[in-house]
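Reading a protein record of the kind used here takes little practice once its layout is understood. The reader may check this reading against the record printed directly beneath this paragraph.
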Amino acid sequence: MEKQEYKYIFRNRFRTMASLSVYRTGYKQCTSEYSRGMEVRDFYILHFVISGRGTYSLNGKRFCVKAGESFLIYPNMQINYWADRNDPWEYCWVGFDGADARILMDTAGFSPERPVVRPSSPEKIHRRIMDIYKCRGQEVYKLISMTARLYTLLACLIEDAARNGPILSSHIGLTHVQQACDYIANNYSRHITVEDIASHANVSRSQLYRVFIKHISVSPLQYLREFRLREACTIMQQQPESIKNIAYAVGFENPLYFSTLFKGMTGETPTEYVSRYANKRK
């Protein structure tokens, strides 16, 4: 009997500055040979196949995916995926991005060379993605709830990967990235440089740049800037402060430069951002 197509999806209208944010989530029953067509996304999308089967193409390489398996779409890479003719797949998904997204997916055992993973408890992964969908919404507390459940999903995948081998040690340079990120998290409010970060991670500046690009697709300097901007967003959401004081509090010495970066990353000026959250608190 031919499967009846359906699709339910939620899209986040606000791509907030965060180490990890849910952009969209949903589930769908595909018709025979249904295809997205060749495309390039600007965020990650993790699919879990509930039933049926299909094919996933990443940068020209094809992977057969069946019920109980997950496949990861990477940003800025050419992809396509289509349902099987005789047994079209039903799947659920969560789209997300953030400064920590790449390192978390690496740790979970995914890579562009190995974008398909079969978890040991498929029903748990299915349930975790649907938990994200169930708490969908544009309100701030719902966006936070979706991200919290995304972390729970990734924790399950990372725990599963750890049982199959020491994922962290298999990725050369990942330990240096983690050391650098920890240093930034503890010292972002101070006047630190990329040289300081590299010294803490016991690597040269050029080597630190290479491992950052490999594992999280941004430079150490960009990661530091984005981390500071995320912290600024947190302050703005929680308490009224002058833009100048916020800039200083998160490690920027020039408030004008801070405002320029903030607008470039969020699409809003700091004043507009503060005003939007002030209105939500009323």
Summary: The mean pLDDT is 88.
